[in-house]
Amino acid sequence: MNKHEQKYCPRCTATFECKVGNITQCQCSNIILKGEEQTYISILYDDCLCAACIIAVRSEYNRNKFTARIRKLFRLR
Q1: DSSP string of 9-23?
Q2: Which pLDDT band holds residue 77 (cuts at 50, 70, 90)?
Q3: How many angstroms separate the CA atoms of 50 and 28, rounded?
Q4: Rg (CA), the chain
Q5: What spatial distance separates the first Cα and last Cα of the chain, rounded to whole Å?
Q6: What is the mean pLDDT of the chain?
Q7: Which of these, 69, 62, 51, lies nearest to 12 by C-alpha position?
Q8: Minimal CA–CA distance to 3: which of 32, 23, 29?
Q9: Is 49 helix (H, G, I), strand (E, B) or coil?
Q10: With the C-alpha atoms ordered 67, 35, 8, 31, is the resulting torsion angle positive or negative?
Q11: What is the pLDDT of residues 19-45, one digit of tens each?
Q12: Is the pTM of the predicted complex or chain greater than 0.90?
């Protein structure tokens, strides 16, 4: 029997169905995260996020990373 759970996204409070018992059918299964993106999300949140928030937080991480690189580059000049 597959285990499905109704959850609330801790970021946006949207309701979504977590399919931990059938991860290939879960709403997050088609989102690809690099290790550092996954670590960033797990530092900020203790539970699953909805797919939209996973994508938004991944973008936030990459935007912050890019901004830090740009700032470092301009400080070196």
Answers
A1: -TTT--EEEE-GGGG
A2: low
A3: 7
A4: 16
A5: 61
A6: 90
A7: 51
A8: 23
A9: coil
A10: positive
A11: 888 888 888 889 999 999 999 999 999
A12: no
Question: Token match 């912050």: residue?
Answer: 64
Q: In one letter, which amino acid is 63?
A: R
Neighbouring residues of 33: CB distance < 8 A, sequence distance ≥ 6: 41, 54, 58
- Among candidate residues 14, 32, 56, the one with its CA nearest the CA of residue 6: 14
Sign of CA dihedral 14, 19, 62, 44: positive
Domain-wise residue ranges, the chain: 5-76
Which residues have CB under 8 Å from 4's CB, separation 6+? 17, 18, 19, 20, 21, 22
Among residues 59, 45, 58, 62, which one has the least CA distance to residue 9?
Answer: 45
